[in-house]
Amino acid sequence: MSRCILVLPGDGVGPEIIAEALKVLAATETRFQLGLTVQEGLIGGASIDVHGVPLTNETLAQAAQVDAVLLGAVGGYQWESLDIAIRPEKGLLGLRAGLDLFANLRPAILYPQLASASTLKPEIVAGLDIMIVRELTGGIYFGQPRGIRVCDDGQREGFNTLVYSEAEIERIGRVAFTTAQRRQGRLCSVDKANVLEVTELWREVMTNLGREYPDVELSHMYVDNAAMQLVRAPKQFDVMVTTNMFGDILSDCASMLTGSIGMLPSASLNAAGQGMYEPIHGSAPDIAGQGIANPLATILSVAMMLRHSLASADAAVAIETAVATVLDSGLRTADIVSDGTEQVTTAEMGDAVAAAIRKQ
Ligand code: IPM
Ligand code: MG
Fold first, then answer.
1. Active-site entry in 11, 23, 111, 192
2. Could you state, in order of their start, the residue ranges of all structural domains in the chain?
3. Ligand 1 pocket test: which of 105, 140, 248 has the largest number of ligand atoms within 8 Å of its C-beta?
4. Which residue stretches of 237-335 are H helix?
5. Does pLDDT of 1 surpass 80?
6. Which atom of ligand 1 is nearest to the CA of 89?
7. Residues lining ligand 1, judged by CB closer than 6 Å?
8. Active-site residue identified among 111, 141, 164, 213
């Protein structure tokens, strides 16, 4: 069976980290005979420069056809003055919405080798394994009305709408409950139900859903407390489920528990199991082109892609094991380097992971 993936490197460090992910995919392909065809396309600023828009209809249609999309990152200084409606980020949001990728899985796992790279004490983060389930196609990112308007007194005001339907809450809830069933069976739903009606409804729907999953222990937490608990005692969490914006913020926070935001992969899935895979970090234009970006989040995103969209769990494990082997050998990119380890470039890290797969 021929399966096809669409690769969208994007901007900033995107092309550098995707190049390493493709090296690792090629090594995996050779070993496991995956039968993958790889197409490439443009997204974000790279697409704006060629087509004038961050995501063309053709690229969206192409993404809808393939088995999975692998994305680097979007955005950069040169596009920041553009109207918000055609900025690079809109390409990413258009892809998420266009493919209805409502379920965003963001695992925060601490590789034991990186315990000293975390800014938190090793005993706080040792053994950390959290899954953040972020709603990705609703909430304040997409709510209407939105905009900037001029009021009667001549002052401008900006406004966005935070809205969730019961159906939207229920479908992300089901993903979170089933994810918890496959893990330690604990789910923490994060909201701001003490202030926002929309998350009062969120809490009610999650509570009702909980009755269908008696094997999952459901708890609720306000988002401000959740941010605090993530740095105070992160190991209390197994699976967390939350809204689009809260999930954006909490996943950046959780990433630093693992040593670096350069370590966190993600999967964004729709109801048909189609997926887009990307590191959770951005395009980091400040370090682009210097060969110092960490490609491991993207490489680990390839593993998630093989597992969730391409039914190749053994190949996924091979990549994850290879990453552990390389970390064991002491190689580190600049963001995770510490005493007694050896700093390598983006490309050297990719080469090392690919070599570890060939040696397994
Ligand atoms: C993320 C990013 C995006 C988001 C940006 C680039 C639009 O921060 O994937 O977490 O806010 O969702
Ligand atoms: Mg983010």
1. 192
2. 1-102+264-360, 119-258
3. 248
4. 244-257, 296-308, 313-328
5. no
6. 7
7. 89, 92, 248, 280, 282
8. 141
- The reply to whether CATH 3.30.2130.30 applies to domain 1-102+264-360 is no
Fold (CATH) for 119-258: Isopropylmalate Dehydrogenase (3.40.718)
Rounded average pLDDT over 179-208: 98
Q: Measured at the alpha carbon of residue 241, what is the angle toward residues 120 and 85, in degrees to the nearest 5?
A: 95
The pLDDT mean for the chain works out to: 96
Atom of ligand 1 nearest to the CA of 75: 6
Q: Do domains 1-102+264-360 and 119-258 have the same CATH topology?
A: yes
Query: Is-catalytic flag, 252?
Result: yes
SS3 of 158, please? strand
Å from CA of 248 to ligand 2 middle: 4
**pLDDT per residue over 74-94, tens digit each?**
999 999 999 988 999 999 999
Expressed in angstroms and rounded, the spacing between residue 217 Cα and the centre of ligand 1 is 29
Q: Are 131 and 105 in contact (CB under 8 A)?
A: yes
How is residue 186 annotated by DSSP?
E
Reading the block at residue 5, the tokens are 């993936």
Give the residues across from 37 on adjacent strands. Answer: 4
The amino acid at 338? S
CA of 76 to the centre of ligand 2 (A): 15
**Residue 29 Cα distances to 312, 352, 355, angstroms:** 11, 16, 13
DSSP-assigned letters across all residues of 3-45? EEEEEEEESTTHHHHHHHHHHHHHHHHHHH---EEEEE---TH
Query: What's the N-to-C CA distance of the chain in angstroms?
Result: 25
Could you confirm whether 335 is annotated as catalytic? Answer: no
